[in-house]
TrEMBL record:
Keywords: Repeat. PPR repeats lie at residues 64-98. Residues 1-23 are annotated as: Disordered. It comes from the Eukaryota. This is Pentacotripeptide-repeat region of PRORP domain-containing protein. It comes from Alexandrium catenella. Residues 1-18 have a biased composition (Basic and acidic residues). Signal peptide: none annotated. InterPro entries: PPR_rpt, TPR-like_helical_dom_sf. The keyword S-adenosyl-L-methionine does not apply.
Amino acid sequence: REVARTEKPETEAVKAEAQEPEAQEEALGLGALILRIHHAAKKGDSTSAAGWFRRFIRAGGEPTTATFNSLIHSAAKTGNWKVARKWFRKMASARLDPDVITFNSLMNAEAQRGNVQ
């Protein structure tokens, strides 16, 4: 009797990497895309974080306050206050409420540019 084989998650991830971007998003799933946003943001790579965010949205994801906090934090970490403010405005447009983390990140962005009052 033959036993049905199931592919390991690692194999599926490798296949996803070899596919076109649109297929990758579907294969990765929204959870994996969120993790990529947060990982890039934590490294301070706001360009990659923004790219992963766009893929997340195209894949049908709905951002949360935490998602925007990662993007704001990433921009703030690199001193890019204009981008941090842009993400804050997009967060407001999405009708999401900022929290303490949001405001701390915005204050850090302003402080890095020397705008402390």
